[in-house]
UniProtKB/TrEMBL annotation, chains A, B, C, D:
It comes from Thermalbibacter longus. This is Chorismate synthase. HAMAP family: Chorismate_synth. NADP(+) binds at residues 47, 53. Keywords: Amino-acid biosynthesis, Aromatic amino acid biosynthesis, FAD, Flavoprotein, FMN, Lyase, NADP. FMN binds at residues 124-126, 281, 296-300, 322. Belongs to the chorismate synthase family. GO terms for biological process: amino acid biosynthetic process; aromatic amino acid family biosynthetic process; chorismate biosynthetic process. It comes from the Bacteria. Its cofactor is FMNH2. It is an enzyme of class 4 (lyase). Reduced FMN (FMNH(2)). Gene3D superfamilies: Chorismate synthase AroC.
Amino acid sequence: MGSTFGRLFRITTWGESHGPAIGVVIDGCPAGLEISEELIQHDLDRRRVGQSKVTSPRQEQDRVTILSGVFEGKTTGAPISLITYNADADSSKYEPLRDVFRPGHADYTYWAKYGHRDHRGGGRSSARETWGRVAAGAVARQLLRTVAGIEVYAFVRELAGIQMETFDREEIDRNLVRCPDPVAAEKMVAAILEAKEQQDSVGGIVEVRADNVPPGLGEPTMDKLDAVIGYAMLGIPAVKGVEIGEGFASTRMRGHEHNDEFYLENGRVRTVSNHAGGMLGGISNGEQIVVRLAVKPTSSVARPQRTVDIHGNERVISVEGRHDPSICPRVVPVAEAMLLLVLADFYLLNRAARI
Amino acid sequence: MGSTFGRLFRITTWGESHGPAIGVVIDGCPAGLEISEELIQHDLDRRRVGQSKVTSPRQEQDRVTILSGVFEGKTTGAPISLITYNADADSSKYEPLRDVFRPGHADYTYWAKYGHRDHRGGGRSSARETWGRVAAGAVARQLLRTVAGIEVYAFVRELAGIQMETFDREEIDRNLVRCPDPVAAEKMVAAILEAKEQQDSVGGIVEVRADNVPPGLGEPTMDKLDAVIGYAMLGIPAVKGVEIGEGFASTRMRGHEHNDEFYLENGRVRTVSNHAGGMLGGISNGEQIVVRLAVKPTSSVARPQRTVDIHGNERVISVEGRHDPSICPRVVPVAEAMLLLVLADFYLLNRAARI
Amino acid sequence: MGSTFGRLFRITTWGESHGPAIGVVIDGCPAGLEISEELIQHDLDRRRVGQSKVTSPRQEQDRVTILSGVFEGKTTGAPISLITYNADADSSKYEPLRDVFRPGHADYTYWAKYGHRDHRGGGRSSARETWGRVAAGAVARQLLRTVAGIEVYAFVRELAGIQMETFDREEIDRNLVRCPDPVAAEKMVAAILEAKEQQDSVGGIVEVRADNVPPGLGEPTMDKLDAVIGYAMLGIPAVKGVEIGEGFASTRMRGHEHNDEFYLENGRVRTVSNHAGGMLGGISNGEQIVVRLAVKPTSSVARPQRTVDIHGNERVISVEGRHDPSICPRVVPVAEAMLLLVLADFYLLNRAARI
Amino acid sequence: MGSTFGRLFRITTWGESHGPAIGVVIDGCPAGLEISEELIQHDLDRRRVGQSKVTSPRQEQDRVTILSGVFEGKTTGAPISLITYNADADSSKYEPLRDVFRPGHADYTYWAKYGHRDHRGGGRSSARETWGRVAAGAVARQLLRTVAGIEVYAFVRELAGIQMETFDREEIDRNLVRCPDPVAAEKMVAAILEAKEQQDSVGGIVEVRADNVPPGLGEPTMDKLDAVIGYAMLGIPAVKGVEIGEGFASTRMRGHEHNDEFYLENGRVRTVSNHAGGMLGGISNGEQIVVRLAVKPTSSVARPQRTVDIHGNERVISVEGRHDPSICPRVVPVAEAMLLLVLADFYLLNRAARI
């Protein structure tokens, strides 16, 4: 179990890397929303592999088909089933991995938990599962845009230790690493290619932001906005940390520095700074939501590594196959999707906050 | 809504800082577990305020009473209701705060969301709510200890920029800041007292660990162990970041460095290093679980700050009252409790993983 | 687990018959609702034992105390914790029942499931648990009345085979059995007293209705209004059947008879008849909601019965103690509460049905 | 929302009557279970339309394809996605129904709730949705059979007032109405054909039973076995009532008659009679589970009926199309599926009942 996310705007993903298809069911999308395959495909195309020299060469068109829940261009309130068929699923490369555990991967833990696993391409634990998250995120984006003008976007802030120094939102989708600083982007691409050449991989930091979020989203004390964002982001493959606003940097600030003072702007309550990253006490405060994710270096590296197999032998393994030397650029659309899903759910939940 | 945590081992907290009582209901604790008020009180005493010069002087005995679910010393499978009555709830100090928003606190967002709020001591948003989490965590601790020998502990790793340099687990509860390094602890106490004198506050980093966790806990793809830990930890008041294993440091490592190689130890699969912090693909791998939390400096500072009130006026406020100049030492038992709750839930869920 | 009801308007009950107290936590009641202990007590007083010669002589004041979630007379959106302390819990009578299973009761099944049980007064399985349902139902009633003018009421339709023949809503609370027909009520009282004298018990049929329910409540395909009503009603102790509208009688009707034809009344869609009991396809249609419950004869009878004990001996038992010779009159407020809880939850869920 | 059923063994159905496909995702099926398309198809074939002169002539092969969660013949613990493509979906007949509400159907309530609906063949409200329930039920059947030897079966007990008088389990699938009494079956077929000729429809009573259910299933106080059965059964299209054991007949019994006395059979606790239908206090007691459903006469009748349309006009309608003059025979496999799903979920939940 555990493949469902959300309470009211609720998604369930299914499918394995090398099975016939993968998909997602969205249950709880309100009726009357304009949705099309094109709209969803737009977000999916940003997630696709085979996009450039810095990502996996696996070719997947990832075309979405809407199987239910949309009638004559609008949602009906019924579950929305989205599917894509796996095309370029070359399983033969995985045959040698049938009984051996790749370090850094979920092979061992799935085997330990379930006793029986689909080893092909990581099976269920493959990042291919995020297709469904991004597809559902596109629907959430349309909902939030339509009903509240909320906009969510993400980008690579740091990669292989190279930090972004300027910010131009338009730049994000112009370069291969999705960094809003073209100079840093160039260095990042070089770092990825260098790692690739060395049969290695690199990590980085992805930032996600949301604009125009109204005050009031979040359901304390357990389902705080920050808590559910933490849940959403740490569920993305390769993410090992998440911080809100100043995050870890706040631990070295003084209280009077970190507190965001309030003022009025045309009668609206605003804060002078935004160290809190757009939320207080687990509820959005109307400022920009700012979240950062720590993305580990990809686990699939061709260098030989020590490992063991299911028969209780120690082995040495080189993970061949088609992998991303850095997953950061492809985490960008997934991180957006997860924040969109969180906000869509809280947006609907908030309708029940007052009589 | 949103006051429930967990699926099978499920808790619901209730109560306001200055109401007559606060409490928690645990639904789903298996029958047959030995539980007593003393056992729960032991954990609660570590959370209490009024413990030392570095914490709030508010005096609360925080005595737990078991109202249900335990019969002749053992759980019956029925909901366990735990309660404590608020004693030293001096609300008069809060009267001036009835209509004004303290910076860094949830006053504004609760007001924006609900339209009507209990302003006394932060009402529902008070850290006093964590009493219920710690009480329930003590029951989870007893469960995990009894059925699996799992042990969870936490400590302050860094405070006001002062880092722990040695580790002695026995030391943790010996000093006022719960740091396992007595030399660093002394400096941390000094830093807190200095901040207090300056009507200010400081933050820090808390680390939580779990030993003896068997492989298999976690329910991917959404309810991964890391994801639910993120949810649990970012729901603790003042926590602004969470990382697993190497966390943010992993972003500057290479893949071959970060991957934990496997080997066999008496037939058991182990990893040479533990950069992953005890989990792979969202499932525990049998190594130590390692989680770190970024704790912001306490928001209640006596220094004057700009703010606004509910009537639409800009104001200046000094937050008097009885506060912790650093909440880190008191986050320690809460962080333990949250990890215990996560593990107890996954432990029970894992019983359904195989036929 | 399993002590929680509802998704958005969500209650968790706790407590045993002879423990120190029983209670309920309501999580998800919208903020801004006027609530008082008096308002809740009004519904609780209708549920109380010790009311008359036809109910159990156990004396419980059942006074409710609001412990949280209400501030200056209005809900705050925080969990509402309600408690009552058990006063007249005479456990000594239950000592002989510590190791023996009363026929028709949950003694054996709780023992088989949990291995350890509170035998006193049925422990958790006691109908005393319904206190929390009725208390929470009173809050749901206030919500539905305030926001939508919805009114719910119930009554005894049949008892010991004696059927109601006239209907006067005002009559319901005037007689001891809560039957809207005073003539039938008199016969029912006589039947109960006769059964009591014979150390026996009788069953009957309770009907619950809701007026002014707007069209649109219910969440198909699984959480249909009828389905969730079935769930709610079959969870009431002693209820062994539930039907909607014509219910079992519909099985002998023809389709053209059973279908409720539509017409317009001042522009509003109405049905000529109401065989469907106010719902179509799992969603309310704006007509009166009509539900009937089959209530079995109370299981506690003083007549000797064959049974077994936990030591594997066959025994003969006479269930002494203070019991209701018919539980029907006391099912009335519980059935109301459950329908109120269902409707409150669906009312809030329905706010997310459209963009 | 509302298309998910179950807590641990959890299904989500999706799809409309005349959309491209319908399906179901099962999340939480334990790993290691032998599953095949043939096994699932076996149950689906019993649900299919176009089977005989007493059911709808719509032709659907209803072939199931397993898209995920099964690898080399066994479940992996990942979500199991099952799909079938709609073949014979003749939507043209529904064009005249685009803006008019069929009496007894969900047309009006879906329109009132969602404001936008797929009118073709009832869209989401079509009984075609039960395909996913039956497919998932087949997996639950395999689970329960494998781990506990539990067997579930259902049959038509009464139809158009004609009651079954003998019981031969082998007979059930031999006749067109699935009645275990061949003589009654013949009369039932005649009654259906007569109703069909008269452009009308008939209802009946379906009974579902489960053998070999161990004591302990059910999670009181809210998620009692009876309560969740009520939820499951009243969610089946056309079901208007449900009863357990003696059900409504118990209301006219005396307590000493209705109570099932306990005795020992080879050390196992048994009851002499089974008026309770296999459960006490919401938990299975080891006896046969017995549930009966009231099935209303099908709403689609060709006779002219009064109705209204979405433009606010009163109209007269004759529901042409391909319908079942009695849905009872096809409720049989759906009722089995729902009981299987309930039991599978409780079976897994019960693993967490004790330490």
